[in-house]
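Appendix B. Chain record.
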Amino acid sequence: MLFTKADGILDLRSLEDYKAGHLNNSTWLSINDLPESLNALPAAPASLYLVGDKDQIEAASLLLDSKSYQVTGSLVIESQKAMQQWANKLPGLVENGSQSKTLWSPSLLVKEFVDLIHNQSLTFGEVDKVGKVVYRPSVLDIGCGGGRDAIFLAKNRMNVIAIDHEAKVLKRAKALSSLSGTSVKFKCCDIKKQGCLPEQQFDLITVVRFLNRDMYDYIKKATRPGGFVLFQTFVEGVEQFSSPKNPNFILGKTELAEVFAGFNIIIDRIDKLNDGRPVLSFIAQKACSQ
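Structure tokens predicted for this chain:
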């Protein structure tokens, strides 16, 4: 069946209709919210199977096609009765309730960092005698974009401040945070301007697919002793691809190791995104004595 082979099943109907019956492992996302909620989807070019009435499917197909997604099929449902009829035809493949599958994911390096904490390869924050974290670590996400990393970290019991200069992008991040049931403090400002970056220290500072070398000194000072910095952004060699080409946004292969030479370097390697572009993945810990 086509919908079992897609990367996601997107149900565009009203929440009431969705609760009354939907395909197993569906994701509910109202057609009205879809244009501002693309960050709730897997990264393009993912394949999606659509459920909704004819107009909803047509509108979604046009939008998703323009964003390089692949619509692999659709199920036209004009009423709750129609879905019940499909439930009879597809025994065991239709369920009711509000459960909705999460399709988005954080950057792989952020997930790797959280995995290292969970398996206790890294000590993060203050822990008690049995290794339980006794307070929520503080995180600053600089250039947060659609908010996936910030929201993922918040879902893992961290207090997160996420900064981006584009109000439209932050609107999408806030919508995803609400949809995910998490609390993130989003801030719209330009880091080049005074007062944008918080005057406090953090247990973790993340910078993913963003680069402004003027913030290096701030990051070193704003990282709490024993805290971590995490970078994953484009590195030399990316110029052969479509973007970026501006050297201001491209790291040298040894640049972060040199900038954070006083830190304990945990990860310093070159990875590739799904589209083949190389990124430098970097995690380092500030010495407790600094």
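Further analysis of this model is presented in Appendix C.
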